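Researcher: Predict the fold of DUF2378 family protein.
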Amino acid sequence: MPPAAAAASPQPAPRRMRYAPLEGLLRSLEIHERSAEMKEIIRLSGGTDYVPSEIAVERFAEVLLFLARTRFASLSPSEGLFRVGACLFEGYRKTLLGQIQLAALHLLGPDRLMRKIPEFVGRSSNFGTRAVEQLGPNTYRVDFRGVPLPGDYYNGILHAALRATGVSSPQSSWEQTGPEDMTFEVRW
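Model: Structure tokens for DUF2378 family protein follow.
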């Protein structure tokens, strides 16, 4: 390829997470602004004095793993990540943006929530695709493609979101279908 053609080829945008999900985690876990834990989160997220407004997805994954390991040390890594996801959702509901976006969640009901999950989950990132399919009454499949974050983390988000609609005992299973692909089956 001639140098001019190579220079004209667009580079893919860096994959990033917006600050809002991390803000939800910080609120839910009550991480204090000047604590050693916060300093480590800032470092892991690529910041120097504060958390950047957008975080490289690989760095965001490091923050999730750090919080699962330190905040839920007595749990298995997968259960810790599940709890981090659930905490993120609960904390996000306390943020200004979360209050606006999720104000009517309890009115949506679980079926409408599941149909909107790709939109809800995809709002805070610029990568991957998400799709949902209803398999039967109260049973859905959610496919994530090109999403390099832990499935257990998203599983925790799904459970917390369903509980917010009034589902008392959501059930799910998930499988990694590729390096950055996963499929969830969610039922209640």
